[in-house]
Amino acid sequence: MSSNQLIKGTLQTIILKLLEDNKQMYGYEITQKVKETTSGEILLTEGALYPALHKLEADGLLETHTQVVDNRVRKYYALTEKGGKEVTSKIEEAQAFMDQLQLLLNLKPNLQ
């Protein structure tokens, strides 16, 4: 099953949670962490990740800084104070949605 369509609605939540758990990360590191955590079942593309990161930054939820590592410039993302507060809200929203989805998927035919 391709989860690319399903992931779109939760990508911001995933990014915020990863940054909460890891303090700061760069883009490729985020894609690799998602791949590793899901045993390759969810693959984030740059085309999906970077627009989401830029939107979160524009919304004041992320801050960035660059660092040279092995002669390469890496752009690191970290939560702002506002972003830290938003993580809890986004996770609660996602959990409520998953609970409702579970109810819908477990529906049994009404045999009357």
From TrEMBL:
Q: Which domain of life is it from?
A: Bacteria
List the InterPro entries hit by this protein, alphabetically: Metal_resp_DNA-bind_regulator (IPR052509), Tscrpt_reg_PadR_N (IPR005149), WH-like_DNA-bd_sf (IPR036388), WH_DNA-bd_sf (IPR036390)
According to the entry, every stretch annotated as the Transcription regulator PadR N-terminal domain falls at 15-87
Put simply, this protein is called PadR family transcriptional regulator
